[in-house]
């Protein structure tokens, strides 16, 4: 057994194993870099909320994709810590261990080689001494037989032969001793030391193989561990896709942009063959409706500035309801049969209209030039359509109520702190809280006044919307017939009539119909909804809900972003619409 051949082969094999481990670590490290870059590119920042379920589904897809990206980061982290770091540490340890084993083998081999050299030296010495002894013996015998040799020469030759024989005997004993030592060292080297070193190298290499095997397993197990969560992410994306309801989005769009305007009536025929006795309808382009006294109805001026063409390229929002209209007042339809027109219309109609505008609505606008700059945005949102105005006012009231509740809570907290300071003066001076309490009280008073202001505007908007409903229109038309019977000289458009009945309708409570619908909805949910996120209902009128909780849908979103729901264990209130997945009955 040659240590050189075996040691060289083992050295090459163990080095190859360590190189393979390092190559695998490099491979996994490149994989982690790919996973990290992939996760980074997959991640998206949170997007704004929307009322449309198709956008909510998109938000859910993005959320699930972010979770999916998070799992890719988990894969990269596990691969880095469990494979790259661990195997790199083991590789360094194995390198040191391998170096020690080979040093031990070389040291044992060196000792055996030294023993063998000593054996060879003693052997050569023994061989030389034997030849010298044999030669001395032959010389002594030759002299002994030579008759001419003296006795002294013979004795000297015999002494030399005996000396050489003695030296040969000592060399023989030394050679025998070194031979026994070498045989013992060689036996120990080949039967004890070499097997131990080989076993250590084998155990080291097998341990390295096991660690590499575990690294291979971790590579696949890490991917397998995230598969359930990735599957849930994909299921969430599929559920988001299934939650898209095109009808619901259409209804949301309708609620967002519902104006509350009446549909225009038919355009009447205007007889221009008789210039003085023209007849105009209330639905003619640019023709305003009037009141009983012939003046322009300020509430209706904004509706008659022009037709709102829905698909026009430059379709703009309607002007404020109280903005002036540049058009002539309608001549009386009965003027052709009952005499000349009213004296108020003897001047140029455009001049008359401008004068009337300056008299009636001048306080509401800064200048007539504002007409050229488009609609004026007013604080009471009168520049918006009726339905949108109502929603905006409700939104403002809810915002002010939330601010008011915060201020009230702050006031209560300051009062409690003041009481604590009064009871324990060492904690603070009660007078130091007075400015903050006064400021809070002032804010509460301001907010209450603003809420009252918005509530009055909301009541006005509700009353106008109620007065424009079909049942009220029928009531107006009946009263109009009665008025025409009493005074045939009056000619009014049905839409512009302000009767006593309509005034009574404006004075009725505006929430009567809403309260009746609310009471009816309590017993009959219109659908179900599931909470996609947790919501803490801290303000008045709201309720809390947990993620995944199923609720009864009592009232759809009216465009303000809130939906009225009922919990299964009781309790009813409003929650954000964007937090729900709604299914209508």
Task: Explain what the structure shows.
It is found in: Cell membrane; Cytoplasm, Cell cortex; Cytoplasm, Cytoskeleton; Lysosome. Keywords: Cell membrane, Coiled coil, Cytoplasm, Cytoskeleton, Endocytosis, Lipid-binding, Lysosome, Membrane, SH3 domain. One of its GO terms (cellular component) is nucleoplasm. InterPro entries: AH/BAR_dom_sf (IPR027267), F_BAR_dom (IPR031160), FCH_dom (IPR001060), HR1_CIP4_FNBP1L (IPR057871), HR1_rho-bd (IPR011072), HR1_TOCA (IPR057870), SH3-like_dom_sf (IPR036028), SH3_domain (IPR001452). Belongs to the FNBP1 family. This protein has 585 residues and is mostly helical. It is 62% helix and 4% strand. It has eleven helices and five strands; from the N terminus they run H-H-H-H-H-H-H-H-H-H-H-E-E-E-E-E. The chain has a five-stranded antiparallel sheet with strand order 4-3-2-1-5. Helix 8 runs antiparallel to helix 10.
């Amino acid at each position: 057994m040659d240590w050189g051949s075996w040691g060289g082969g083992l050295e090459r094999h163990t080095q190859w194993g360590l190189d393979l481990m390092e190559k695998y670590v490099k491979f996994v490290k490149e994989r982690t870099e790919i996973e990290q870059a992939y996760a980074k590119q997959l991640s998206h920042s949170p997007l704004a909320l929307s009322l449309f379920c198709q956008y909510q589904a998109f938000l859910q897809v993005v959320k699930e994709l972010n979770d999916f990206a998070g799992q890719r980061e988990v894969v990269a982290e596990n691969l880095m810590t469990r494979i790259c770091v661990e195997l790199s540490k083991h590789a360094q340890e194995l390198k040191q261990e391998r170096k020690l084993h080979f040093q031990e083998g070389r040291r044992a081999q060196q000792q055996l080689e030294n023993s063998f050299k000593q054996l060879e030296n003693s052997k050569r010495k023994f061989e030389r001494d034997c030849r010298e002894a044999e030669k001395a013996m032959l010389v002594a015998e030759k002299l002994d037989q030579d008759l001419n040799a003296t006795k002294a020469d013979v004795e000297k030759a015999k002494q030399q032969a005996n000396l050489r024989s003695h030296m040969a005997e000592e060399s023989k004993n030394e050679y025998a001793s070194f031979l026994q030592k070498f045989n013992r060292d060689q036996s120990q080297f080949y039967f004890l030391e070499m097997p131990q070193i080989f076993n250590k190298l084998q155990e080291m290499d097998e341990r390295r193989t096991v660690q590499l095997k575990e690294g291979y397993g971790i590579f696949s197990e890490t991917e397998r561990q995230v598969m359930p969560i990735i599957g849930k992410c994909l299921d969430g994306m599929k559920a988001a896709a299934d939650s898209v309801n095109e009808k619901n989005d259409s209804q949301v769009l309708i609620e967002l942009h519902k104006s509350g305007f009446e549909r225009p009536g038919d355009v009447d025929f205007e007889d221009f063959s008789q210039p003085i006795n023209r007849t105009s309808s209330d639905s003619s382009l640019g023709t305003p409706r009037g009141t009983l006294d012939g003046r322009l109805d300020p509430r209706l001026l904004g509706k008659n500035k022009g037709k709102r063409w829905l698909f026009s390229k430059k379709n703009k929002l309607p002007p404020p309801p109280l903005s002036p209209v540049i058009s002539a007042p309608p001549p009386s339809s009965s003027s052709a049969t009952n005499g000349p027109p009213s004296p108020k219309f003897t001047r140029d109609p455009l001049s008359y209209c401008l004068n009337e505008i300056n008299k009636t609505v001048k306080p509401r606008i800064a200048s007539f030039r504002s007409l050229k700059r488009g609609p004026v945005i007013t604080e009471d949102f009168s520049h918006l359509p009726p339905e949108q105005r109502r929603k905006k006012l409700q939104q403002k009231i809810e915002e002010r109520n939330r601010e008011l509740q915060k201020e009230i809570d702050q006031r209560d907290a300051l009062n409690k702190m003041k009481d604590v300071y009064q009871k324990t003066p060492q904690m603070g001076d009660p007078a130091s809280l007075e400015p903050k309490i006064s400021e809070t009280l002032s804010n509460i008073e301001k907010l209450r006044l603003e809420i009252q202001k918005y509530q009055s505007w909301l009541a006005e908007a509700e009353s106008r919307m109620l007065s424009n409903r079909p049942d009220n229109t029928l009531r107006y038309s009946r009263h109009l017939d009665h008025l025409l019977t009493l005074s045939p000289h009056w000619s009014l458009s049905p839409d512009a009539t302000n009767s006593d009945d309509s005034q009574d309708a404006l004075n009725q409570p505006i929430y009567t119909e809403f309260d009746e619908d609310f009471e009816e909805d309590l017993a009959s949910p219109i659908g179900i909804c599931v909470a996609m996120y947790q919501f803490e209902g801290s303000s008045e009128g709201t309720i809390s809900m947990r993620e995944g909780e199923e609720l009864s849908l009592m009232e759809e979103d009216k465009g303000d972003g809130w939906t009225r729901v009922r919990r299964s264990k009781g309790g009813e209130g409003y929650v954000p619409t964007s937090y729900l997945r709604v299914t209508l009955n």
